[in-house]
Amino acid sequence: KDVSRDLMCFGVALYACMEAGRWPQCLSLLEQMRLEEVEPDSIALACAAQACRDGRNRQAADEIQDEMRQRKLDYNVPEVLNEATLAVDFPEVRSPVPLGALRPMAQKEVQLFKWIRQRATPGDVQSVIKVIEEFAEERSWLKIQGEQKKELLEATLRPEDRIVEFGCYVGYSSMVMAQRLRELGGRGSVTTCEVDAANAYIARGVLQFAGVEGEVQVRVGCCCHALCQA
Q1: Alpha-carbon distance 2 to 184, whole Å?
Q2: Strand partners, 189
Q3: Dist. CA 41–CA 100, nearest whole Å
Q4: Judgement on whether residues 40 and 115 belong to the same structural domain of the protein
Q5: φ, ψ of residue 130 in degrees (nearest 5)
Q6: What is the distance between the alpha carbons of residues 180 and 177, in angstroms, rounded to a whole number?
Q7: Which Enzyme Commission numbers does its entry carry (predicted)?
Q8: Which of 14, 90, 168, 183 would be a feasible disulfide site paired with 47, CB 3.0-4.6 Å?
Q9: How high is the pLDDT of residue 222?
Q10: For 133-143, what is the mean pLDDT?
């Protein structure tokens, strides 16, 4: 069966090949993107350029950076990769996913994740929750359960609850519940599912940044599958 490949698919593949040191495959992927009329963004090109440079193919790396300059993209490869890498560890994806690959599908959510990394304290759940609320108030509306709904959610939890959440979005409610379960003794658990893969990847990165990735399981797909496995 033919599968439609988009920027996200190519971005993940390019990052994986870069990490594996396979620069010829990176060049092949760039060529395939052009054949399929998927325009490489700065992240895709940076992955290929870095792979070529690591593989001592300086000519190919320079040509890719020249293309980035001509297209007026950010051509500082290390900075592009450092800015754009979102660490995830789903069973489905064993390599980090470039944020640039997610941006076309979740532009606001990508901006939120960058906002969190710039302003929140790593490993501090409450700090991350506060920054998400600030983003929703100051920058752009988010589908989060804040204020009274948040208080109601916290009040309903019991120490040993095994929670299944339908609709993770960016992980806000999952963090609220994980934080409350910690306060109650830390014996409960949260399993959250998200049908939108881009949002799920971002949520996983947010949860990891907050330090609750061991307490919240994020599953990509329909809620019925997550419910059967929880």
Answers
A1: 49
A2: 162
A3: 7
A4: no
A5: -65, -40
A6: 5
A7: 2.1.1.6
A8: 14
A9: 67
A10: 90
